[in-house]
Amino acid sequence: SAVISQKPSRDICQRGTSLTIQCQVDSQVTMMFWYRQQPGQSLTLIATANQGSEATYESGFVIDKFPISRPNLTFSTLTVSNMSPEDSSIYLCSPQLTSGPDTAYNEQFFGPGTRLTVL
Amino acid sequence: QKEVEQDPGPLSVPEGAIVSLNCTYSNSAFQYFMWYRQYSRKGPELLMYTYSSGNKEDGRFTAQVDKSSKYISLFIRDSQPSDSATYLCAMSAGNQFYFGTGTSLTVIP
Question: Across the interface, do B88 and A42 touch by the CB < 8 Å criterion?
Answer without folding.
Answer: yes
